[in-house]
Amino acid sequence: MKLKVYSDRLSQPVRAVLIFCKVNGIEFEEVRVDLSKREHFSPEFSEINPMNQLPAIVDGEFKLFESHAILIYLASSYPEVADHWYPADVFKRSKIHSVLDWRHSNLRRGPVTIVQNTVLAPMFCRPFNPEGAAEGEKLLSAALSKIESFWLEGNGPFLLSANQPSIADLSLVCEIMQLELLDEADRNRLLSPYKKVQQWIENTRNATNPHFDEVHKSLKEIKEQLQK
Amino acid sequence: MKLKVYADRMSQPVRAVIIFCKVNCINYEEVRLDIAKRQHLTPKYAEINPMKQLPAIVDGRFKLFESHAILIYLACSFPGVADHWYPVDVFKRSKIHSVLDWHHSNLHPGPVTIVRNTVLAPALGRPFNPEAAAEGEKILSASLAKIETVWLKDNGRFLLGGNQPSIADLSLVCDIMQLELLDESDRDRLLGPYKKVQQWIENTRNATNPHFDEVHKILMKAKEKRQNQRLKGENHGGGGSDMKKPLVSRI
């Protein structure tokens, strides 16, 4: 039985899992669950993930949710996955855990808060909320500063001075890509102070293309729809 | 060079790391930093952890922060640590990662938000904020309901049907223990509906005692101090639960 990935490509952590599978040649079936139609609250999906969130996977009889846990499981279980994604070395691996944990409490809320209070508000029946979005911008800027000054401190193209991407790069870059839903002017305003961050996003994209662009196509399509 | 753990035992994730070390007989030096005195914001500590948070560890030349990352590192690097803390089995291990990740965005904000906006507000130089505390209560209740019905769904003594504790049990229970800072009536009101959760907290405590109680003593002392201060205040005309009335500043 093929791996199933429960997915809505609007979701940043979903995209990280999809790109990871495609880049590593992991065969899977993408089971689409539409967040805007609240399909993640269906009884069927609750059997897969009682927390009603995406992504989730089913591998044989094994069910798992939370994207970091999923990425680690896939990296550990599929022998075709190269070591740099989730190194066996305990020191490198621990630093990756540190970035992933930091992401939860620091980076994640920024882009989510901005887009949910602006461009995605109508889709999720929420009011447009400029103060909420402004709070999101503060969170995002604080997080991007930390990435620029600390996580990208060394001279490597990727986080933690690495020369090849890890699951941390993929996870964090997919998070920041949510800003593609904004007007280009806003996106540039938010990202432009951070030169290393912009380069790192490009590096991660190049290292995982054509899959990165293909998976992110949905964001462009959604943006076009919203602009109509 | 001995492992160093940068610690303020008022912090839930710090307590999880310290109890883990003690239970597993990991030799370490506890370097005390007082969050209320803003000692985590010094340039010296920023060299250890530029995110300026606790806990952090230094093992030889290796520095690490984020408590889940630290617990995993210790479980993998110190040979005396029994497998149940962080099993080698990829399926069990993945489920533990799932709990720990869920914890960040779900359980952890609950107790933090409640205590920061009530009992710990003065120590942190923050205003008393009952609306924010009420939000924290909602987050906590939603999370406790999920622990009761999902993570404790199977009949084990610990999360995920386990018969022995993992780092996930320690991490989550230490977070809930922050509620010890509240009045007993508030704590009972918040935890009362969740029987499995209460039993699980007790199981985790028993599995890690006497270290669990010893490390949590600081919360009891902080609570006693606050209650004494309130009694002094009542003698001058105040009174009532800290969650329900604004604290009168004595500054």
TrEMBL record, chain A:
Residues 1-82 form the GST N-terminal domain. Its EC number is 2.5.1.18. InterPro entries: Glutathione-S-Trfase_C-like, Glutathione-S-Trfase_C_sf, Glutathione_S-Trfase, Glutathione_S-Trfase_N, GST_N_Theta, GSTT1/2/3, Thioredoxin-like_sf. The keyword Transferase applies. It catalyses: RX + glutathione = an S-substituted glutathione + a halide anion + H(+). Residues 89-226 form the GST C-terminal domain. GO terms for biological process: toxin catabolic process. Keywords: Detoxification, Transferase. Belongs to the GST superfamily. Theta family. This is glutathione transferase. It comes from Hibiscus trionum (Flower of an hour).
UniProtKB/TrEMBL annotation, chain B:
Its EC number is 2.5.1.18. GO terms for molecular function: glutathione transferase activity. It comes from the Eukaryota. Residues 224-235 have a biased composition (Basic and acidic residues). Residues 1-82 form the GST N-terminal domain. Residues 89-231 form the GST C-terminal domain. It catalyses: RX + glutathione = an S-substituted glutathione + a halide anion + H(+). GO terms for biological process: toxin catabolic process. Transmembrane segments: none annotated. Gene3D superfamilies: 1.20.1050.10, Glutaredoxin (3.40.30.10). PROSITE patterns: GST_CTER, GST_NTER. Residues 224-251 are annotated as: Disordered. SUPFAM superfamilies: GST C-terminal domain-like (SSF47616), Thioredoxin-like (SSF52833). Keywords: Detoxification, Transferase. InterPro entries: Glutathione-S-Trfase_C-like (IPR010987), Glutathione-S-Trfase_C_sf (IPR036282), Glutathione_S-Trfase (IPR040079), Glutathione_S-Trfase_N (IPR004045), GST_C_Theta (IPR040077), GST_N_Theta (IPR040075), GSTT1/2/3 (IPR043377), Thioredoxin-like_sf (IPR036249). Belongs to the GST superfamily. Theta family. This is glutathione transferase. It comes from Hibiscus trionum.
